[in-house]
């Protein structure tokens, strides 16, 4: 009989292997990662796919690991030492905590996501999503921690090299500075610039394409037609979609017949200029003005200056709602300032959207101001998301808006927008951040339909609302509006005050974690049904009817408009 010791069971070998693998990491770091992993899976604003949920959890786990390592270093510097017995039991406690926290966090994640899906009217996902989340989070966290440890080893190497000639403390500080500067140069000079170049190449090619079903308009009242000064090929993908769009005449007739407010109907005017239409923003804006001249847009009852999003997109529902409201007696003007997605435009050229909004509005306003006051169209401004940010960039204050326009409609305004931020910060005492009241609602009013449950909440402050009017429409569950770097260390009012009905009571603020949750929400904010998140499709009818109602327009007429806007464009 052999005297060799029996081999340990498979389970014991696996446990031993995991123990050796975990031993390569800091216990404090792993504890921090576990805490941040669990909190990252807590309630957010938007239901997420496994990809995004795993991404959020992995990033937060890596941050937690880093903070745990930092805490351990501070304790060592302070002279704190742990006995072997404490270390032994610490690892055991960490193992038990992991066995408990990970499945509990995944179950909690399923629970709150399903609760949100019930509110949003979305079907529940399969239970297999939890496994996908766990695997993605683990792989991402390991990768990020590995990157951090590699940078630390590089710093130690640099420190040992320069330490041959300078004192140790100075050597360590020099090493940190050298590695940090090199990392910044690498990120800015190679990764960022290279990434931007790649994105420009990819999205530039996308911009040269035309969406399926979009054809060049034949009506001279549209830019891109044969009569247009803005060539079809120069409009960009989103510009071509905008000028070729619109509801069929039958729908214009239907709304006019049912409301009796806008007969007879007319063919709407849509003018647009693409990036290739001019050498700079001012030149592009002048092409738009020339198109307004060519189409005799100044003879229409309403002229709307719409600032597009990053790709040049104009929300079809925004344009359709105004044209249906006025029976086509409208002109809508917009232009392209980028072909990159809004988040890329914001990161790469944050100053461009407000510069474009200002260039477009100033060019049109200068021409509009030259017309006789009693025969020029009503002038409105509008925008959604980055377009709202850009549109508001044309004005210095709310008083400036009302002095130079007949009203404004801004949807899903990003929280970094200066005008919106200033008004929200100086709201009337007692009014919540999700639906501020400013000066009793004399000029500007906020809509948040899921938060109030009333389709006519714009009138809850009373019907004594003189023109011009400004409407901000925002959802309590829209991460685009509520995202801010301040979330890293400060609890926002929208989580401290009574919240909207599509934000769970269990949604809480946690340092750093809430910031990353909100950051991830930005990428999925629009992938929800209308009325939630960043989807405002069905709310333009109420917004336009509030700020730009034709004479004799009634709440019942708004019901008709909302019904038609909510239907597919091909219906009559």
**Overall mean pLDDT score?**
86
Main sheet attributes: strand count, strand direction, barrel closure: 7 strands, parallel
Element-by-element helix/strand order: HHHHHHHHEHEHEHHEHHEHEHEHHHHH
Rg computed from alpha carbons, rounded to a whole number of angstroms: 28 Å
User: Which structural class matches the secondary elements?
Assistant: alpha/beta
User: Which overall shape is indicated by the principal axes computed on the Cα atoms?
Assistant: elongated
The side-by-side strand order for the widest beta sheet comes to: 1-3-2-4-5-7-6
Please report which band the strand proportion falls in: under 5%, 5-15%, 15-25%, 25-35%, 35-45% or over 45%. 5-15%
Distance between the first and last residues' Cα: 91 Å
**Stretches with pLDDT under 50, minimum 5 residues:** none
- Helicity range of the residues? 40-55%
Number of domains: 2
Protein name: Alpha/beta-hydrolase family protein
InterPro entries: Alpha/beta-hydrolase_catalytic, Alpha/beta-hydrolase_N_dom
Keywords: Membrane, Transmembrane, Transmembrane helix
Domain Alpha/beta-hydrolase N-terminal: 41-246
Outline the structure in words.
With 572 residues, the protein is α/β, with parallel strands linked by helices. It has 2 domains: 10-162, no CATH class; 216-478 and 537-565, no CATH class. It is built from 21 helices and 7 strands. It has helices spanning 10-22, 27-40, 50-77, 84-120, 129-162, 168-207, 236-244, 249-259, 281-294, 316-325, 342-348, 352-369, 386-392, 398-404, 418-425, 449-452, 479-482, 493-496, 513-522, 540-547, 555-565, and strands spanning 269-273, 302-307, 330-335, 378-384, 407-411, 444-447, 469-473. The chain has a 7-stranded parallel beta sheet, with helices on both faces. α16 links the parallel β6 (444-447) and β7 (469-473). α20 (540-547) packs antiparallel against α21 (555-565). The mean pLDDT is 86.
């Amino acid at each position: 009989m052999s005297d060799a010791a029996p081999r340990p069971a498979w389970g014991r070998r696996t446990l031993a292997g995991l123990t050796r693998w975990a031993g390569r990491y800091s216990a404090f770091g792993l504890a921090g990662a576990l805490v941040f992993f669990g909190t990252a899976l807590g309630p957010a604003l938007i239901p997420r796919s496994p990809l995004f949920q795993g991404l959020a959890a992995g990033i937060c786990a890596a941050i937690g690991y880093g903070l745990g390592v930092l805490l351990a270093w501070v304790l060592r510097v302070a002279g704190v030492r742990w006995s072997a017995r404490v270390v032994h039991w610490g690892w055991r406690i960490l193992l038990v905590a992991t066995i408990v926290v990970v499945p509990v966090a995944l179950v909690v994640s399923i629970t709150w996501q399903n609760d949100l899906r019930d509110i949003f009217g979305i079907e529940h996902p399969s239970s297999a999503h939890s496994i996908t989340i766990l695997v993605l989070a683990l792989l991402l966290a390991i990768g990020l921690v590995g990157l951090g440890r590699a940078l630390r080893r590089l710093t130690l190497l640099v420190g040992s090299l320069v330490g041959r000639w300078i004192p140790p403390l100075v050597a360590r500080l020099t090493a940190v500075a050298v590695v940090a500067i090199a990392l910044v140069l690498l990120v800015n000079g190679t990764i960022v610039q290279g990434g931007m170049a790649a994105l420009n190449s990819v999205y530039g090619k996308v911009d040269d394409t035309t969406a399926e079903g979009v054809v060049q308009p034949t009506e001279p009242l549209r830019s891109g037609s044969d009569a247009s000064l803005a060539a079809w090929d120069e409009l960009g993908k989103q510009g071509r979609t905008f000028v070729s769009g619109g509801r069929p005449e039958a729908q214009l007739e239907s709304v006019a017949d049912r409301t009796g407010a806008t007969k007879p109907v007319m063919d709407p005017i849509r003018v647009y200029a693409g990036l290739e239409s001019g050498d700079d923003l001012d030149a592009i804006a002048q092409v738009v003005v020339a198109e307004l001249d060519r189409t005799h847009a100044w003879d229409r009852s309403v002229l709307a200056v719409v600032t597009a999003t990053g790709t040049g997109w104009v929300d079809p529902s925004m344009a359709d709602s105004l044209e249906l409201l006025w029976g086509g007696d409208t002109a809508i003007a917009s232009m392209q300032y980028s072909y990159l997605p809004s988040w890329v435009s914001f990161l790469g050229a944050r100053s461009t959207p407000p510069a474009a909004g200002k260039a477009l509005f100033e060019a049109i306003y200068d021409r509009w101001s030259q017309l006789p006051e009693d025969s020029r169209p009503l002038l409105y401004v509008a925008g959604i998301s980055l377009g709202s940010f850009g549109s508001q960039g044309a004005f210095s204050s709310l008083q400036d808006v009302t002095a130079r326009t007949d009203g404004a409609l801004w949807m899903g305004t990003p929280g970094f927008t200066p005008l919106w931020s200033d008004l929200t910060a100086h709201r009337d005492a007692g009014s919540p951040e999700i639906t501020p009241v400013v000066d009793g609602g004399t000029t500007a009013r906020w809509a948040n339909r899921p938060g109030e449950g009333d389709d006519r909440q714009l009138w809850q402050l009373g019907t004594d609302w003189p023109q011009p009017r400004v409407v901000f429409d925002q959802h309590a569950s829209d991460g685009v509006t509520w995202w801010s770097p301040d979330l890293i260390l400060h609890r926002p009012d929208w989580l401290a005050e009574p919240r909207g009905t599509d934000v769970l009571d269990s949604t809480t603020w946690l340092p750093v974690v809430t910031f990353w949750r909100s950051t991830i929400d930005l990428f999925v904010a629009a992938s929800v049904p209308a009325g939630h998140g960043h989807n405002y499709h069905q709310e333009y009818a109420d917004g336009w009817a509030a700020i730009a109602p034709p004479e004799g327009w009634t709440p019942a007429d708004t019901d008709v408009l909302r019904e038609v806007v909510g239907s597919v464009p091909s219906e009559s």
